[in-house]
Every structure is written in structure tokens, then in C-alpha cells.
Design brief:
Blueprint lengths: L1 H12 L4 E4 L4 H18 L2 H7 E8 L5 E3 H9 L5 E14 L4 E12 L4 E13 L2 E11 L11
Parallel strand pairs: 2-7
Antiparallel strand pairs: 1-4, 2-3, 4-5, 5-6, 6-7
Helix pairs in contact: 2-3
Amino acid sequence: MKTLACVLLALQLAGLAPGAAASGAIEPTLLALEKQRSEAILRADIPTLRNLMDRYYRHVESRGRVRSKTELLTALERQDVRFVSYENESTEIQLLDGGKVAVIAGVFRSRQEGGKPFRGRYVRVWVREADGWKNTFHQGTEIRPANEPCNCK
């Protein structure tokens, strides 16, 4: 996955060397947080999302739009973005910096109200802070069928 490789390289260059594969209590904790995040996105549960996100959170949407924590939560609260389904299909966890940082990548499925089903890849970065794990970065990229034309120019 090219995006994951770029994120990992950036973290390595920042001095956050890859750690061992996720294990012990960390992996189940991160999987539970990922599930909690998905359910909160689906329900537009602003208090839960606010608690899960780092104050420096950045959200890169599948079409390239970048939103801050405040911008994403406001869009969900105003129902500018409403999901009728949202779930992770697969999840891969890699721990970095001795287990203080986690890069989580996988595939998700969603559908917004009035929209068609969407399937995409995601990368999220979680950082362990004094008050627990916080999601600091998300990027989603649509997975298009190979036979679907692209309007790329």
C-alpha cells in the first residue's frame, strides 16, 4: 500500500523507528478504539469522537479535502455528512516508537445518506498520550473497480 509506505517512511525520518508487531494488550485496545470510532462516525456521536481525536487531528477525505478536528465534527453535527453505514472490513496494525505510535491501515465500507455504497482504503495514525490513545490522522482513498473509467486529466 503506497500511502502506508509513505506514512511509515515519514515516521522513520522523524526518528520514530518501527517497533515489533502489535501484540499483548495494545492490539485489542486499538481494535476496540477503531470499532468505537466507526460506530461514533455512523451515529455522529460528537462527544465520543472529540474524546478519541487528538487536538491536532487531520482528516484527508477520498477526494483530497483536508478537514481539521473542528471542521469534521462540525460537518457531522450539522449533518452535512451523514452515514447510513460505516464499518472496517480489514485492519492491519503496526506499532512504532516502542508502542507509542500506531499506524492502522485497512479497508472500509460506507454509504452516506442518499449516496451509493463506497469502499476504500484507510490509514489512521494513533498516538499514545497521557490520557490514552488518540487518533491524530486519517486518510481514505476510494477503491475503484479496474474496469471503471477514471476522469483523470
